[in-house]
Amino acid sequence: MYKSTGNSGSRIANAIIVPMVAVVVISLSGIFALLHWSARVSDETAEQSQYQLIAGALRLTQNYLAKQQNGVVIWDEAYHRINQPEPSQGWIYDNVMHWLYKTDGFNRSVLIDREFKLGSVYAQNHSTKWLNAKLLADLKPAIAKVRARYIASFKRTPSGLFSYTPELISTRRSIAETGVVALEGEPYLFSAAAIIPQIQSVTPRRVPPAVLVSMMPLRGEKLQEISEMSRLDGFVLMQQQSSEADLGRYPLKSPLGETIGVIAWQTSQPGTQMMRRIDPLLILAALMIAAVVVLVTVFTRQMTRRLARSEAKAVHTARHDALSGLPNRSRFHAMLSNTLTENADGETNTAVVYIDLDHFKDINDTLGHSAGDKVIVAVAQRLRRVIPESGIVARISGDEFAMVIRNCEDDVWLDFILDQVQDEISRPIMIGRRELFASLSMGAAIAPRDGNDPDELLRKADIALYDAKANGRGRRSFFEQSMELQVQSRDKMSRELRLALKNDELDLAFQPQTDTSAKRIVSVEALARWTMDDGTVVPPSQFIPVAEETGLINELGIWVLNKACAKAHEWPGITMSVNVSPNQFKHPRFVEKVMAILAANNLPPQRLEIEVTETVFAGRNDSVLKALRRLKNLGVKVALDDFGSGYSSLSYLRRFPFDTLKIDRDFVSDMNGNAEAEAILVSIIQLGKALGMTIVAEGIETIEQIRFLQAHDCHRMQGYFISRPLDAGALSQFLEDFQGKYSAGFGMDLSYRGRTAEA
Q1: How many Cβ atoms sit within 10 Å of the Cβ of residue 537?
Q2: What is the pLDDT of residues 418-433, one digit of tens each?
Q3: CA–CA dist 611, 642 (Å, integer)
């Protein structure tokens, strides 16, 4: 027995040692080539690092130039004097340009006025010949950036005026651009800064600033300062690149990207120096590797014994979750199969329960994954405590658990057990000094009632879990056949909808909106319609939620948007309104897709109106606000749909300036003779007008509703009384008929008439 074990150990040793010796020889042979390559890379990296040091020192120097200008560019008196129709050149010379020369050494200065024209020129030697067209062309990009940044810093107030508030007043940071230009054949540092007021100002329109450009030569003390900051020696300022191998080169670029000079320095070569010291270490390393080979030979037999002992541990690890210590998915499946086999006669019921932690991602996002791991461990411990001794609990994936509960008496008994599970988990979980509260959604399938196949039971438990989450979370559902039918129906509709989108089998309907007078159609709302090949009409209330759940809403939304923009050309002068799902805003390139569709259809952005509901702001995702602002900046109108249907609509009106406010149809339908409903409706109209929005009332079904809305100057109206949703051909005919008899409206007078006493 021992001999056999020894032979086995020798074979394992040979199997390890022979390849190891070969690896050692090959490795040592390759080390020398690797070291030479590494030395070269090290030299290149050192030079690149020194290059970055010079770049950083140059940036610091340029930033300091901008800071030196602050005393004259952030100054109310300078702002008002320079921006006068005919500013005093003497005052500008004494208090701005010559003052900068005396205090900070700027020996060249140029003032560009608000009209981008040359205002004042300064030189230490009183010459103006140094300023030429080439220099002005080099400075123009920096001056344009400063003017653009100043204009962009204005904020529009609700009153329509523009407010400018200087940023970081305490640090006196100017709006400036810095760089290097060539002047009289030598590099000059420059700083171009906007002349701005010290305090907040309000103006009816945004006006570009005057810009002061101050310059000093990049030589002498300035070059020495950069050398000291970068801690590099041998700085030389050259006119062109040098071909010397050990000389570093930093090109100086003008704002137009032209090379106007080179800073050169003597580079260090750490890789070459390393090679001179590495040979003794290589010999020592080779000896150490040989010693390791000997040690491996000695301990090989011990390793085989350790492998045998660790095998059992490896098997356990492969079957259990490392964090919670619970059986993992594969082990749980095997244990469930064994349980069902033991109960093949079906004398007792066995429950399979899927568990999902509600909003577990929020814990990871807010407190970190470490806190999430502690919650997983706490939940696992509590599930083990509360489940019957004969039961099984496992961790299936991140925040999903599963249980097997044997010998279930009936659904009431199982409901009681799951109540205990819910109560146990609902107790606070302490993470440090913080209390966290977890809740579970659970779905259960019961054998043999729901089947005896493990995979089938797990699938049905998962369907029940989906039902529990879909109906509010924090609850449980037992599998019912109707749930499976719903899943199958949803899956079938999803596949059919995907195919319909691929084959372009959907249609659009358009519902018109009138202006206040009800004599002009000003907008149409595009609505998706789906009629199957067999003539079955699928209502949007069915296929839109399926598209949301399956991710098809992005493809469907883009299809609707593209078709609507293409059709908009058939009805010039009419705004095209398109609903956008909250899920579409989660797409990182949604705005770009909208821009591409507008460009492809040659449709002005001003003719497109995007309708969103307040659910688009769920979670206070700032990326949604950024996307909406980008669309608005393009010229696309943004409407808040179904206003008043949520509890926090007013906060969205404050956070984002919508163009249009669509009043929820429930307010319109409830107003007939109802004083309270009418008062609410009037309040919403007045609120929207106060915020400068276009007001649209939906759900118009009677002439009395139209007259009431006309009386309170509602801007636009939409509803079945005006027109039901129409296909493109019917809409064109409707518009033609409507235009032909607009004075009579829809066969009756829709113009506003005051209410009589009887009304």
Answers
A1: 8
A2: 888 888 888 888 888 8
A3: 10
